[in-house]
Amino acid sequence: VTISESELHGNEGGIWMEGSSQAVIVDTTITENVFEGIYMEESAEATITNCTVSSNKEGGIVVVDAARATVIDCTIADNVGAAVVLAYDARITLEGNRIVGSTYWDGEGGYGVMVVGPPCTDSGSFGGYVTGKANWIPGPGEHDGNVGGAVCPTELGFLMTEAGGELDRRE
Length: 171
What we know:
seven-stranded mixed sheet; single chain; mainly beta; 20 strands; six-stranded parallel sheet
């Protein structure tokens, strides 16, 4: 499916992808949903470009299982829990995004980009892959800072550099 120049606002969830679903999401605003802005599980794949994902109540973009996402030139702002959450074997590329203003959910999270499992969460695990560069992800005390921190774990700091890098936990 292609979703272009759309607005998904005030729903139970924004976009939910499962199975082997595929999507291209362009120039779309996903705001103020009760749950996640974009939730991807199983083998779902999405390319998300020039979108705004904001003020969602359980995360901005959540990628779990073996789902894969490419997120480019988006604003992911003011989400509860974390802006981008990765779990299990998820894979993601983040380039040129503005990831700001995440707040705590039930006392946890608040990160711009977070993988599930220690030291970021008490449960779950991450055995996937993260790559990216040139993202604006401020920490606490910075303008529009994410209250829990820019990234967790700190190994994801390359996401904020021009050179970029990768975190590969695949076996």
